[in-house]
Amino acid sequence: MSQHPVFDPKGMPFRRLGGSGLRVPIFSYGGWLTVGGSVVGDPVKELIKTAFENGINMIDTAEAYAKGNSEVEIGRVLKELNYRRTDLVITTKLFWGLREGPNDGGLSRKHIIEGTKESLERLQVDYVDVIFAHRPDPTIPMEEVVRAFNWVIEKGWAFYWGTSEWSARELEEAYHVADKLGLIGPIAEQCRHNLLYRERPEKEYEPLYRKYQLGTTVFSALAQGLLTGKYNDGVPADSRWATEKEAQFKSHAARLSTPEGQADIAKVKALSEFAEKELGCTVTHLALAWVAANPNTSTVILGASKPEQLIDNLKALEVLPKLTPAVLAQIEEIAQSKPTPVNLYGRYPLDGALPTQL
Ligand SMILES: NC(=O)c1ccc[n+]([C@@H]2O[C@H](COP(=O)([O-])OP(=O)(O)OC[C@H]3O[C@@H](n4cnc5c(N)ncnc54)[C@H](OP(=O)(O)O)[C@@H]3O)[C@@H](O)[C@H]2O)c1
């Protein structure tokens, strides 16, 4: 076997994923829509190589991405690039299975165990570092879900488990069940968080960061490209919103001409101006650095369709130290998106009892 390329973090800061001992780069790379979907073959290798050579050793995928093909492409490329497994943090997600049968999806013990084994096969690895429940499954008792993820961990097929788009109530129930049974609870929530979408990660989850040291692997930090400014004047032909066939992308594009869509565009334009004048960067860098600057963010999953986008996005690392409290306050003024504070009913606020102030 030829020598493994050596992983060089290249100054990438690493954070613990929640309360766990797993260290994750503050910028990771994810393969929704792109890897195995709009990008296949050699360009996938270029993307993953570019990530690895720029300090990103964490890759996120899911059984459902490109109907399993995202995992297949990532598995193939990681083999071809001959990266040392211990250098990598690989995460995948289960929920939307690949077939239509009654037991081919969701969070039953059957699908969690069978789905994990199939993901590992596609990825050509013995284990993933974190396995996520891609959505909550209200049709399955929480005890079954928690026990099944613990079984997967006991088997060595994953080291940790997490959730994605679960409500705080569902997470609380999982922690309660895990605690009662002496089992391991979720270490992280894979949640949407960006300058235009903040209520859930900043307000709803706030008690969970304090009580359970919940980590986050943040997705759509660029609001699927909106926060790059590329949709300011309509939908470019080679962009996600033009090329993806699903109805959600048509509705994203249609929303641009509504008053709400125009209000978002106005914010993106104002943020662009601020970024250029005050920070010497683009709105893309500002938006990514802003999410990474949140102390509850463990990693921001970058979604790039081209290596140039990845390299460009990593300039956010240079912007991070510029996000002083004064600068963050100016960004708040422009974005006007801060969730309303928790109602304390007149009680004097205690340290740590309020949502994190950015
Ligand atoms: N758990 C979940 O439910 C969930 C949901 C969504 C995503 N995720 C994960 O999070 C990852 C990232 O999510 P996301 O793709 O929505 O993230 P995002 O960063 O908000 O959007 C990424 C898209 O923005 C465009 N873009 C990125 N950098 C750019 C740049 N520098 N200049 C111009 N355009 C740029 C690209 O679109 P174009 O194709 O137009 O070039 C790219 O595909 C996914 O790959 C996946 O791993 C998880």
TrEMBL record:
InterPro entries: K_chnl_volt-dep_bsu_KCNAB-rel, NAD(P)_OxRdtase_dom_sf, NADP_OxRdtase_dom. The keyword NADP applies. Gene3D superfamilies: NADP-dependent oxidoreductase domain (3.20.20.100). Pfam families: Aldo_ket_red (PF00248). Transmembrane segments: none annotated. Keywords: NADP, Oxidoreductase. GO terms for molecular function: oxidoreductase activity. The keyword Transit peptide does not apply. Residues 29-335 form the NADP-dependent oxidoreductase domain. Belongs to the shaker potassium channel beta subunit family. This is NADP-dependent oxidoreductase domain-containing protein.
